[in-house]
Amino acid sequence: MAEQSFQDKTEQATPKKLDDARKKGEVAKSRELTSIAILSAGTIYLFFNMKSMTMTLGNNLKNAFKKIPEVMPAGDFSPQLVSDTIVDFLILLAPLFLILMIVAILINLFQTGILFSVEALTPKASKIDPIKGLEKVFSKRALVELAKSILKIVIVGWVAFSAFKNDIPRMIPLLYQENTQILYLLGELSFEIMVKCCCVILIMAILDFMYQKWEYSQNLKMTKQEVKDEFKQSEGDPMVKSRIRSIQREMARRRMMEEVPKADVIITNPTHLSIALRYKPLEGMKAPLIVAKGANNIAFKIREIAAKHNIPLIENKPLAQNLYKLELGTEIPSHFYQAVAEILAYVYGLKKSGYKG
User: Fold this and answer.
1) How many CB atoms lie within 10 A of CB 313?
2) How distant, in Å, are the alpha carbons of 161, 239, 253, 254, 296 from that of 248?
3) Phi, psi at residue 295, to the nearest 5°?
4) Complete edge-to-edge strand list for the sheet that includes strand 265-269
5) Could you tell me the pTM of the whole model?
6) Is the terminal CB of the chain with fewer CB neighbours within 10 Å at N or C?
7) In sequence order, what are the residues at sequence separation of 6 or more whose Cβ sits closer than 8 angstroms to the Cβ of residue 161?
8) Which residues lie across from 268 on neighbouring strands?
9) Residue 233 CB neighbours (<10 A)
């Protein structure tokens, strides 16, 4: 096994290893894709509902301020007013939160499918091991994530700055505009910058998702020895299975040999075949039954047992070859009845004359 640790992991992960990893909660997943999906959904929702949300929020605040003289005549603090204001604010944001939650669930289902892993939540001592924690901080994955974060900040910052720089001429006249017009133009410019940033982040998220898939596949790769070991665990050691099959064949052969003394006749091919037939019409047999058969050494063993029990051996090469092709324990087909009947009649005649083998 010492050599195994030095083998290159060149083999793709087997279905069993992929399934085991999934049970542990280890799946290919991009947090960037989830973030951009939530950000885009929120931006789109606010674009279509910001005006009504702003008006509703303004009315709620106006009503709250109007109630202050009523609920605080003596200058006391009113928890009821604060709670009512908070409830109104939460009701206003509830549709946005609901949409963001649905989008987050759908994008995660898209990436990982339906997955519930208790093992991923199980407390482990290795998770609080400071040495392993430092190894993760300075690991290759951590450095890649750091590089990705820096690159994302640089690219998104550059896109946002470029969009803002191009809109500076539109912002200069704001000095002479009313508050409503200023807020409207700032909202328009903010949305334009947000859309451009979302497009850039979306491209980066797709690339990150592809990278996560590739990295996941690379991490789960196996050595040839690991594939062999897994096959042995799932299918059984070939040597052990071969030994079991050998034992099973030996037991079947032994049971077959125990049936030879019950046979009425042994049909032989002089060179290497022996077929033992048994026919007891009084026991309800409709046709002679093949109770034993064999070739080479097994054939000679059958003949040896037959000789010990005074069972006649009849040589009939064509019949022996045809009967040998039949399954053990089956009745002979009807087109062999005539040939076998003649042999049995001959055997019964031998027994009546005092045949001793």
Assistant:
1) 17
2) 79, 14, 9, 10, 20
3) -125, 155
4) 289-295, 273-278, 265-269, 313-315
5) 0.50
6) N
7) none
8) 274, 315
9) 10
